[in-house]
Amino acid sequence: MKTKVTYLDPRHFQVDTPTGERFVLTFERMIPMSEVEAMCEELADVFDSRFEGNVQSMWRKLPQAERNQFGKVLCVLPDKMSERERIGRRIRELREERGLLGKELAELVGIDPANLSRLEKGKYSVGLDILCRIAGALGKKVMIN
Questions:
Q1: How many angstroms separate the most distant Cα atoms in the chain?
Q2: CA–CA separation, 110 vs 108, rounded Å?
Q3: How far apart are CA 13 and CA 74, in angstroms?
């Protein structure tokens, strides 16, 4: 599977990696329509050959000539929904590894089982306090890397 890059508007491109991560890149300059197809292909090639989980780190390590070819990237944001889905999948995996039912984990954490189910499906967002309680009940810590 290869990285897919989609044009959103003259300054924004969406990147879907083979690992299921989704990012929106914001460029300083407006990309003319005549350059969009080539830009999508070149960005996909860069991600396929260099992406190891951290876009900012990958971008900093690109040779200056390659960075100049794209122009200045102002912002890289993870897609909110794909992040919810990724975190929800991981919570479900950890819960199942420990042999817990959803309602058992919800009870340990003190949340409604329906909310835990929606969280695991990426349809619900919780605050950091609840996320930390879920991680603790699963024997994990919340980390930002």
A1: 56
A2: 6
A3: 12
Question: Is the Cβ–Cβ distance between 12 and 77 less than 8 Å?
Answer: no
pTM of the complete model: 0.57
Long-range contact pairs involving 11-16 (C-beta distance under 8 Å, separation at least 24) = 13/39, 13/40, 13/43, 14/79, 15/43, 15/44, 15/47, 15/55
- The two beta strands, 73-78 and 4-9, are unpaired
Domain boundaries, the chain: 4-78, 81-137
145 residues of the chain, pLDDT tens digit each: 799 999 999 999 999 988 878 888 889 889 999 999 999 999 999 999 998 888 888 888 888 888 888 888 877 776 666 678 888 989 999 999 999 999 999 999 999 999 999 999 988 888 999 999 999 999 999 987 6
Are 57 and 28 within 8 A, CB to CB?
A: no
CA–CA gap between residue 71 and residue 91 (Å, rounded): 38
Residue 20: partners with Cβ closer than 8 Å, 6 or more residues away: 82, 85, 86
The CATH fold of domain 81-137 = 434 Repressor (Amino-terminal Domain) (1.10.260)
